[in-house]
Amino acid sequence: MMDDLFPETRTRQVLAPGAVVLGGFAKANAPALLQAIEDVLKQAPLRRYKTARGGQLAAAMTACGRYGWVSDGRGYRYDELDPLTGRAWPTMPLIFQSLAVRAAQEAGYKQFMPQSGLINRYAPGAGMGLHQDCDEQVVEAPIISVSLGLSAIFQWGGATRNAPCRKVPLHHGDVVVWGGPSRHNFHGIMPIKPGPAVAGLGWRYNLTFRTVR
Ligand SMILES: O=C(O)CCC(=O)C(=O)O
Ligand SMILES: [Fe+2]
After folding, report:
1. Which of 104, 171, 182, 185 is the most exposed place for a label (fewest CB within 10 A)?
2. ipTM over 0.95
3. Is the pTM of this model over 0.90?
4. Ligand with smallest separation from the Cα of 126
């Protein structure tokens, strides 16, 4: 595709101060990213977390790096151990780390170093309700979010839950970076529409990279 040959033609869409969509930024690395996901899943399988309110998250999740985001009857938190295996989370694959750092730099965040890589897998019909990412203690660090497989509609809101939401289509290889004044903006994923497999995937993977502590 054109955007692989001519990176300068990729779209760059500013969502808000500190927040940008880097269209196709991860596309050339997608095969390596998918292989790295498989490697992580062998050590830390995907699982659907319970929430403190008795529900269950629609996306299946796991993590890599020093800290993993977990949820159970006690609520949400970061943990250095995988509650499913009792072991430390798998080491963050180098391709995850290098892509996250490059995307952060491209978005203007020069100092970023991910400590946590969250893997979300959305089957068709699964989404993620509007929320803020506020379990991280380092508020200066941005969130780097990579989309692979089926497309999604990302809801990009504001600082309050009832602020108007923009609907932003995200496709295989797109990267969203948000931080600075947008770090705590509300966002979500509308239920994924079924469709023909993309890059061999009949679902959507999302990778998010964060500095936690
Ligand atoms: O799947 C996405 O694009 C967003 C995921 C997200 O907001 C999260 O994991 O906190
Ligand atoms: Fe989030």
Report:
1. 171
2. yes
3. yes
4. 1
